[in-house]
What we know:
By secondary structure, this protein is α/β, with parallel strands linked by helices. It has 6 helices and 14 strands. It has helices at 24-34, 66-89, 99-102, 200-203, 205-216, 231-244; strands at residues 6-12, 39-45, 58-61, 93-97, 107-109, 115-117, 124-127, 136-144, 147-155, 158-161, 169-173, 183-184, 186-188, 191-194.
Amino acid sequence: MAKGLKLRLAHLYPKLMNIYGDRGNIMCLQRRCRERGIDFEVQELGPGDKLKPKDCEMVFIGGAQDREQRLVADDLRTVKGKALKEAAERNVVILAVCGGYQLMGKFYRGADGEELPGADVLDIWTVHPGPGARRFIGNVVARWNGTTLAGFENHGGRTYVGEGVRPLAEIVAGYGNNGEDGGEGAVYRNVFGTYLHGSLLPKNPVFADFLIETALRRRHKDVSLAALDDGAERAAHAEAVRLATGRRIIA
Ligand code: GLN
């Protein structure tokens, strides 16, 4: 059971990295914890605020346009980057979406050619081919852990993965990391990067619960989560899969 346990989430740059409704992921985690009697706490950390890896079970960073990423990259380099790497090595669950995912890597070269240093938590790097390049936009379906993830992508950056990570999921429909290798997202320890907006978690309750269990099991090995009434979530997932599978199949 999980009743009475606490899950503390550090939400990074909520005012800057919050595009395409990514805050919906926090609301989803909040509902899924509170309905199970798990004490869910959110600490919002903007530029200049310190991240304390010992004080959180989960970290979330959403997506953003290049302009906001430029503002955040500085703070990652000078304030939060070291603590993020420490959190990753402590197996804190880190969920990074799109622009936030890109900034977890070695660098993000934006549409203007400027190279922003990333937090170097994930062995990935991202290159935006320029303002005239095709943007990867639309519904996505990808295979993950014997089931599917469904979401929405909207990015110009192409992300490539190195030896130190594995893709989160395998593209069924859509573009994913770079529209070439069929990978979507990246995983290292309990760090999960993804291009899936949507928001991601309300449309993928199985993945949401996987993240909650993973975060709680760092301290409570035998945690199990009671089932919730996910009728609406499953219907949203099915609709997203229907819409996406009408798109070009990459894989
Ligand atoms: N600005 C980045 C890109 O275009 C990320 C966009 C996003 O977070 N949706 O690739």
